[in-house]
Design goal:
alpha/beta; 7-stranded parallel beta sheet; two-stranded parallel sheet; 12 helices; 16% strand; globular
Length: 347
């Protein structure tokens, strides 16, 4: 029997890409109740399951009225709310603070004296810790130092959230576990989901769904800096299993990489997507992004395997095949979400 069976669970940011996949994974374990809090800034209402076990509170966790409904009868909390992602945060650092840093502090401070929480899992970001290099990458471990030099307010906010998790664990005994995400991709990531956030990154939000959408439409894939940057791509189903493992087996106060442990260049990703999608339009090479110094990186999987018994199970080829198939099946929905921003994008 899963530890989530008959448990009451809070998922902050539960209507988003990862959050909605996580909610559906937890629902397979017969929970007593899942409370979703989401302001739909980068998510859509249709991602919330219409199930009697699910309670949806539309709004931000920084709203005192919503926060006041969260009582000390919750078993597990997953904090996934964020201001998605680097480019949006660079455009509007204050909005990032409000939706990324402040959400973490207000939630954790509200919970600090609760006695019944079994685990609070905080979603952090591997980019905040990875060495800023375009040279040969080494696997980033959980013990690697965090630099003061960060590429974006988003990255800074994720580090601050980790600081608060450690502080409130040490000071108040709050059972926090930090999950450092690598680059998540997979079914359910909808380009243009949510409200306009000031830049085309509202639509073209992550590299994998952007490449897949353009490949399906026979467009050349936009690859910056010759595609030499590398990332650790992990399928969303694996991320959800990793988050649940953090809640079930993670040691309070600790941090775990949720990673595949495999380094893939952006150029290799683009070529693989073009091949699977049958796109003959090739690559459109663009200049480097001036703000992005986190060139090559991937995560170490040793600690999560040792302490959580977690390892990613879906390789990149299979994950892309599944994601491309899902995207083709859901093109009408994706197009609706993209088109609602067309006037603001000037297209």
């Amino acid at each position: 029997m899963s530890q989530f069976t008959r448990s009451k669970i809070l998922v902050v940011g539960g209507a988003g890409f990862v959050g909605s996949n996580l909610v559906n994974s937890i629902l397979n374990n017969d929970p007593k109740e899942i409370i979703i809090v989401d302001n739909l800034l980068s998510a859509e209402r249709f991602n919330v399951p219409d199930r009697p076990e699910v309670t949806f509170l539309e709004g931000t966790i920084t709203d005192d009225a919503i926060l006041g409904t969260i009582n000390d009868d919750i078993d597990y909390i997953f904090h996934l709310a964020t201001y998605h992602g680097n480019q949006s945060s660079i455009h509007d650092p204050l909005a990032d603070h409000e939706n990324n840093t402040l959400t973490s502090l207000k939630l954790i401070n509200h919970l600090k004296d609760f006695k019944n929480i079994k685990k609070l899992v905080y979603s952090s970001a591997g980019c905040s810790v990875a060495e800023k290099t375009f040279g040969q990458a080494k696997a980033t471990t959980e013990e690697d130092p965090i630099s003061l030099v960060q590429d974006s307010p988003y990255s800074i906010s994720k580090v601050i959230g980790e600081f608060y998790c450690v502080y409130f664990h040490r000071q108040h005994g709050l059972p926090t576990v930090r999950a450092r995400f690598q680059n998540v991709y997979g079914p359910g990531e909808i380009l243009g989901a949510g409200r306009w956030r000031g830049t085309p990154a509202t639509v073209w939000r992550n590299v994998t769904p952007t490449f897949i959408y353009k490949a399906i439409h026979g467009e050349p894939l936009p690859v910056e800096n010759r595609g030499i940057a590398s990332r650790d791509f992990i399928y969303v189903e694996d991320i959800c299993r990793g988050l649940m493992a953090c809640a079930e087996k993670g040691n309070p106060g600790e941090v775990y990489n949720i990673a595949s442990g495999n380094e893939t260049t952006i150029l290799k990703l683009a070529n693989l997507i073009n091949k699977i999608a049958g796109n003959n339009a090739g690559i459109a090479y663009l200049p480097p992004r001036p703000w992005d110094h986190s060139g090559k990186r991937y995560g170490s999987t040793e600690k999560s395997l040792r302490e959580l018994e977690f390892t990613a199970s879906v390789n990149l080829q299979e994950g892309l095949v599944r994601t491309i198939a899902w995207t083709k099946e859901n093109l009408p929905l994706i197009r609706i979400c993209i088109e609602k921003h067309s006037e603001l994008m000037g297209v």
